[in-house]
């Protein structure tokens, strides 16, 4: 009878947990849809690759050559269809599911902090950037979900061999979609190690967690690399030099480790203490100085408790984990110090504060007396979510404003080309459009536009010839749909240095469109010579 009652109690507990999980998942998804509703409803994209690719995109050899071997298969399963609201809802659902899974590692019951921590990540700039790459946003979401699932299996599965095997497969799949999410996997495992140490769970559990963490990370990366090499061999492809992918080897990782460690810490400091990457409207007011100070004090108090227990091994492990935690946010820098960091690579950084806040919001009864500290942490969490939401509102409005300014410009260009007979039958030469639209005096830039992140400043194109051409092709496919034949790369580069372009007036002045041989030149601004931004 007692055994029967025990089984029924376990079933009731599982049903209750499952219900809480559903409520949390739906709550996170609903919150995310509200935050990103402008982007979803108005089909907003960023000014870079998001503009280049439209409603249909199928990954291929390029993605394979940069190590993302699973991406083409996932695109194939979705038939290459990249439309809204499907892509955004699919991406946000996977992110909400991952966050719901993670909070179970750090909290037994849902409290205000578990909700605020999840909302802090979901409303973060990295999710906004992922969604703005509409053609590949589900790839980012699935990679994040798989990295979270890999960490979840490594922590929850008791059998070490089984935990390593399952986690390795999930991690390899995650890296096959997007390698930068290795940082999420490492962040979660390190945070969980700190939780075990703070709660004095016992050396056996700590040692098992370290073994599973190191084993699954090493096995997962090796499995990813082996599959990549096999797929490259089968397809007759080689790794590209993009972000140093072709040069990665054990030797290069070891030689580049000092520089990679330095870059990782520098990125951490830049992200939280400067205004270069705008992920929160309150960051300019020193919010994260206060947040990280509170986190630092909270961690040091728990470290002092470990020292008072005279647990030398625990103290050393705790110190090492706290020092490595900021480093793990940018784990890819340790593998390829040549990689150019972009905001879409920042999921590890975006997870840092939510995970730390969950660690501080301990469930232990003996911590209940720290009510003032708990309230302070709770208020800071609210401010983080508040600042995140308004930062994302700023970025989305910048995308909308920039697109409308671009639409006015591109519509006028088409009308002027039509007046000049460009679309007459049998007389359609190739077109060369030069200059960054946002640098044109007629391009409207409101305070919201200038305070947004660069990716959201629609019209602020990269100026390398191939990037500029792709951007303008995107304009005349997605904003002003019309069939225009653009000049070749060689023609673009050759004409770029001629006096013909320098002498032309700017749009919309008379004569901003001129023909040079077989190419019609359209000059938008004087800002066209910069090769890097």
Report the end-to-end length measured between terminal Cα atoms: 72 Å
Beta content comes to under 5%
How confident is the prediction overall: mean pLDDT?
89
If strands are numbered along the chain, what order do they take across the biggest sheet?
1-3-2
What's the helical proportion of residues?
55-70%
SSE order, one letter for each helix or strand: HHHHHHHHHHHHHHHHHHHEHHHHEE
How many E-type strands? 3
Let me know the largest β-sheet. Answer: 3 strands, mixed
**Poorly predicted regions:** none
Shape: elongated
Number of helices: 23
Structural class comes to mainly alpha
Q: Supply Rg.
A: 26 Å
Summed up:
The protein is mainly α. The protein has helices spanning 2-35, 37-41, 49-52, 61-65, 71-77, 86-106, 112-122, 125-132, 137-156, 160-177, 182-198, 203-235, 250-255, 257-273, 287-308, 312-328, 332-335, 347-360, 371-419, 447-451, 465-479, 489-496, 499-503, and strands at 430-434, 513-516, 519-523.
Task: Give a verbal description of the structure.
Helix 9 (about 135-155) runs antiparallel to helix 10 (about 160-175) and helix 11 packs antiparallel against helix 16 (about 310-330). The protein has a three-stranded mixed β-sheet with strand order 1-3-2, with helices on both faces. The mean pLDDT is about 90. Helices cover about 65% and strands about 5% of the residues. By secondary structure, it is mainly alpha-helical. The chain is built from 23 helices and three strands.
């Amino acid at each position: 009878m007692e055994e029967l009652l025990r089984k029924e109690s376990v079933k009731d507990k599982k049903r209750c947990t499952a219900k809480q999980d559903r409520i949390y998942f739906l709550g996170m998804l609903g919150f995310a849809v509200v935050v990103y509703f402008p982007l979803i409803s108005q089909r907003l994209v960023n000014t870079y690759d998001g503009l280049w690719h439209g409603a249909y995109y199928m990954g291929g050899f390029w993605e394979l050559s940069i190590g993302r071997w699973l991406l083409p298969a996932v695109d194939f399963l979705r038939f290459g269809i990249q439309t809204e609201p499907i892509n955004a809802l699919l991406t946000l659902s996977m992110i909400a599911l991952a966050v719901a899974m993670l909070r179970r590692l750090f909290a037994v019951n849902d409290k205000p902090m578990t909700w605020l921590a999840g909302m802090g990540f979901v409303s973060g700039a990295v999710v906004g950037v992922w969604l703005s790459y509409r053609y590949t946003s589900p790839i980012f979401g699935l990679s994040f979900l798989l990295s979270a699932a890999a960490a979840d299996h490594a922590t929850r599965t008791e059998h070490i061999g089984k935990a390593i095997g399952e986690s390795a497969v999930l991690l390899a799949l995650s890296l096959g979609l997007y390698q930068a999410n290795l940082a999420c996997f490492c962040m979660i495992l390190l945070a969980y190690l700190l939780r075990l140490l703070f709660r004095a769970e016992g050396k056996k559990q700590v040692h098992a967690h370290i073994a599973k963490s190191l084993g699954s990370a090493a096995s997962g990366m090796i499995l990813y690399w082996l599959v990549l090499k096999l797929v490259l061999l089968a397809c007759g492809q080689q790794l590209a030099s993009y972000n140093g992918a072709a040069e990665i080897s054990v030797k290069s990782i070891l030689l580049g480790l000092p520089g990679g460690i330095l870059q990782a810490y520098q990125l951490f400091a830049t992200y939280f203490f400067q205004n270069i990457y705008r992920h929160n409207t309150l960051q300019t007011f020193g919010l994260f100085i206060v947040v990280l100070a509170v986190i630092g004090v909270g961690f040091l108090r728990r470290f002092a408790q470990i020292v008072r227990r005279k647990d030398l091994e625990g103290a050393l492990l705790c110190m090492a984990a706290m020092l490595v935690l900021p480093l793990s946010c940018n784990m890819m820098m340790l593998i390829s110090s040549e990689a150019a960091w972009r905001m879409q690579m920042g999921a590890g950084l975006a997870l840092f504060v939510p995970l730390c806040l969950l660690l501080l919001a301990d469930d232990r009864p003996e911590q209940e007396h720290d009510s003032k500290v708990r309230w302070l942490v709770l208020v800071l969490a609210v401010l983080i979510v508040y600042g995140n939401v308004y930062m994302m509102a700023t970025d989305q409005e910048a995308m909308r404003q920039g697109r409308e300014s671009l639409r006015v410009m591109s519509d006028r260009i088409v009308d002027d080309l039509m007046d000049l007979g460009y679309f007459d039958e049998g007389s359609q030469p190739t077109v060369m459009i030069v200059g960054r639209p946002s640098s044109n005096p007629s391009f409207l830039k409101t305070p919201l536009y200038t305070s947004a992140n660069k990716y959201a400043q629609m019209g602020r194109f990269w100026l390398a010839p191939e990037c500029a051409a792709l951007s303008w092709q995107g304009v005349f496919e997605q904003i002003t749909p019309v069939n225009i034949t653009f000049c070749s790369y060689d023609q673009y580069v050759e004409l770029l240095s001629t006096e013909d372009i320098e002498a032309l007036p700017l749009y919309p002045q008379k004569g901003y469109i001129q023909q040079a041989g077989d190419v019609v030149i359209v000059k938008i601004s004087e800002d066209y010579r910069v090769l890097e931004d």
